[in-house]
Design a protein that fits this description.
There is one protein chain. This protein is α+β, with helices and mostly antiparallel strands and 61 residues long. Helix content is 51%, strand content 15%. A hairpin with a 5-residue loop joins strand 2 and strand 3. The N and C termini lie far apart (34 Å).
């Protein structure tokens, strides 16, 4: 089984083209991709979760 690709928050922000502040506003409203908090406090996003979120945005547009 292949390991799941985990993206850093900075990679997610670059890919979707928004600022960190805008991302946290979206997250507070429940409109952001799912994040995972690692034991060291860092945030990661599974590649599949980001792709699913992007596909959902496309359907809503």
């Amino acid at each position: 089984m292949a390991p799941v690709a985990m993206l850093k928050l900075s990679d997610v922000l670059t890919e979707i083209g928004i600022s960190r502040a805008a991302f946290y506003r979206m997250r507070a409203r429940g409109n952001a991709p799912k994040l995972i908090k690692l034991p060291n406090g860092q945030l990661r996003c599974r590649r599949t979760d980001l792709d699913d979120w992007l596909n959902g945005c496309e359907e809503a547009a």
